[in-house]
Amino acid sequence: MAAAAAVVEGEVRRDMWGQEYRTSSAECAAALDAYYAAFLSFGRGRVAAALRAAAADPTCALAAAHAAHAAAPRDPAGAAAFLAAAAGNLGNATEYERAVFGTLSAMVGEERNEEVALERHFELLKKFPRDILSLKRAQLICFYLGKPELSLKFVEQVLPENQDQNYIYGMLAFPLLELGKMDEAERAARKGLAINKNDVWAQHNLCHVFQQECRFREATEFMESCSPSWVACTSFLLTHNWWHVAVCYLEAESPLQKVLDVYDQNIMKELEKSDCEAAEVYLNALGLLLRLYVRGHVHHAKERLTTFLDALKEESIWHVEWLLDLLILWALSSTDELKSAHNMLESLKSRVSSMDKDRQQVMQKAIQLAEAVYEFGNGEHKKVFDILGPNFDALGYKMIGASDEQVDVFNEVWYTVLISAGETSNAIDVLGKQIRKREGAPFLWRLLAKAYSLDGRGSDALVASEKANALQAAYTF
Which family does it belong to (predicted)? Predict the structure, then answer.
């Protein structure tokens, strides 16, 4: 009788970091390990592994909670059922399982609240500092709220207990680079790669450093050498890492065909895979096409947009991510799909109006940027300037869930708008400040040359143009 009760309650096991949970199923335990590994390595099979764990032992609260989180983006009803199953099994759950349930219920439950979820993650990690899966989730929340300082605080809180861990240094590097601490970020990423050269997140973060510091050749050579390790990555990270390669070629003003080849062969080919997540590919594809568009490669951008424009009008992919919504809005408005673009803009406004007051206030900036992107696609540059004002800086719009490099394209939009709207003095001032941060970016010098020329400063324009040409020649690869 006692043996039977033990089976019902589940055997106490320890996960790969020593946290205790209950399951009587070896298959459930193996699937949870696979889920942990896939989640931290951005592996394609993480959702399937979480669902497999929950199916193998319906009485395991931990497995059900993870399944709820994994299912939530695509199957909210299924996520609710998993969360209810986890709640129903909390009576026999360990302290760790209850803590994980608390964090995940605040993320995907009916009363979801990101601030509460962060507080609960902070408490969980105080008790269970080896749980780097929960650390990764906390950092993702911080990213989508635009809180790199808090993300760094989370990782620093548990770093002493995890110095031997594969993934901790990549997780340290990202908030450091988001806070502009490039030397520290590079050291952290390299330390992670010394432990595991195939840590795709550490690779990605080192590329961020190279890109920000205009070390474009170093970035492309490094990332292309790492690319075989991306095969098993999610659609997002696989195409995002290739997006970084393409942007580095573009910023170095390499032959345009190199950029287009990465787009065609390494980003869009992902759509041919049976397990592809199309929205994740569109995010990176559109982010690259907008950069091409801003640099005057309008034909190439629009030509490639037409191949998946119908998919962008499908509301099923709207509101997956704010950044994707903004890019879709630009794509629709720039291709004269104004009805769909207007519907998207109104839908975003409605989405914000349903948020609590504090969140509404924060997201008003996202709506402002959405309105500007809509007008930019529509060719109304003066309206863009009127919406954004003279002191716009895209880095203040991180609440859309974007890295510095992802959000920087909106600064590039703004620079071109300043020039076309006749705000040449403002453009010269702003571009001068940006060049002091990234002196090695030829595009910035070309924009500065154009602004000088329009301002009647021909000799300054010539100097800026020669600087751009010298950089381009030095980067040729």
Answer: Belongs to the TTC38 family.
23 phi-psi bin (left φ>0, alpha ψ -120 to 50, beta other): beta
Note the pLDDT tens digit of each residue in 371-385: 999 999 999 999 999
In sequence order, the 6+-apart residues with CB closer than 8 A to the CB of 406 are 287, 323
Q: Are 396 and 365 in contact (CB under 8 A)?
A: yes
What secondary structure, in 3-state letters, does 313-330 show? Answer: CCHHHCCCCHHHHHHHHH
**Closest C-alpha to 323, from 382, 280, 378, 358:** 280
- Structural contact between residues 333 and 370, judged by C-beta atoms closer than 8 angstroms: no
Residues contacting residue 377 through CB under 8 Å, at least 6 positions apart: 329, 330, 331, 332, 333, 334, 335, 341
Per DSSP bridges, beta strands 20-22 and 12-14 are antiparallel
Q: Residue 371: what residue type?
A: E
Report the amino acid identity of residue 163. Q
CA distances in angstroms from 418 to 382, 391, 433, listed in the order given: 8, 11, 15
Q: Which two tokens stand for residue 415?
A: 């620079």
Residue for token pair 């690779």: 203
Report the alpha-carbon angle 345-346-350, nearest 5: 120
Q: Using one digit for the tens of pLDDT, what is the confidence trace for 41-83?
A: 999 999 999 999 999 999 999 999 999 999 998 899 999 999 9
Give dist(CA 64, CA 68) in Å, integer.
Answer: 6
Contacts of 471 (CB under 8 A, 6+ apart): 253, 440, 441, 442, 445
How far is it, in rounded angstroms, from Cα 129 to Cα 261? 44
User: Which amino acid is residue 124, in one-letter code?
Assistant: L
Find, among 439, 412, 442, 441, the residue nearest to 427 by Cα.
412
Q: What one-character-per-residue DSSP string does 431-451 give?
A: HHHHHHH-TT-HHHHHHHHHH
Q: Which one, of 231, 118, 244, 119, lies nearest residue 177 by Cα?
A: 244
